[in-house]
Amino acid sequence: MEIRLSRPCVEDPTRYIAECNFGKQFVMEKLCDILRETGANELKCSLNLGVARFELEGKSVMLYKSGRVDIRRIRNTDEARIFLEKILSMVRDAF
Question: Phi and psi at residue 70, in whole multiples of 5°?
Answer without folding.
Answer: -120, 130
